[in-house]
Amino acid sequence: MYKKITLLLLITIAISCKKSEDTGTDDNEKDKIKTVRWLLGKWETKSADGTLTETWKKANDSTYDGHSFFLKGKDTIHYETIVLQQIEEQLNYNANVIGQNDDKPVAFVLTETKENQLIFENPTHDYPQKISYTQVSKDSLVAEISGIQSGKPSSEKYIMLRTK
């Protein structure tokens, strides 16, 4: 009887260990979103036109919440909320700008990922059709939006520094 209990206990421990190894992490964070942890934090760029700030926080094991705003003096020129979410094996970038798209989020799908670079696309969106983030160093990144605007190719790059 003692041998049977010991055997059952060992099998239970082995199965528990196997499940932990399958997730790859103790906190159960999804694999795809885990690779973009470098995006978390507060980022900023200043120009003569104003200050662009983007902040990313981990909401849960499959979702990062972001918000971005552009200030000119004390006026908020642009504000958007962003949800970066892993659903199964796909990363989705959903941007919501109040006053645009009937106040509904616009979905962009991760189409390409390289080391320290994310490219999201939505070819049916008016502008932008492409959003990319490239980590330059631990404390700097380049955010770029691009696509066709008013019938012409257009792009905007923002070199951002980590502030937190």
State mean pLDDT (0 to 100 scale): 86
Number of helices, where a helix is a run of at least 4 consecutive DSSP H or I residues: 2
Q: Report the portion of residues in β strands.
A: over 45%
What is the ordering of alpha helices and beta strands? HHEEEEEEEEEE
Structural class: alpha+beta
List the keywords:
single chain; 164 residues; alpha+beta; 10-stranded antiparallel β-barrel; 2 helices; globular; disordered N terminus
Notes on the structure:
This protein is an alpha+beta fold and 164 residues long. It contains two helices and ten strands; from the N terminus they run H-H-E-E-E-E-E-E-E-E-E-E. A ten-stranded antiparallel β-barrel has the order 1-2-3-4-5-6-7-8-9-10. A hairpin with an 8-residue loop joins strand 7 and strand 8. It starts with a helix and ends with a strand.
Please sum up the structure shown:
It is globular and about 40 Å long. It has 2 helices and 10 strands; from the N terminus they run ααββββββββββ.
Secondary structure topology:
Elements (H helix, E strand, L loop, with lengths): L1 H22 L7 H4 L6 E7 L2 E11 L2 E10 L2 E13 L2 E8 L8 E9 L2 E5 L8 E8 L2 E10 L2 E11 L2
Antiparallel strand pairs: 1-2, 1-10, 2-3, 3-4, 4-5, 5-6, 6-7, 7-8, 8-9, 9-10
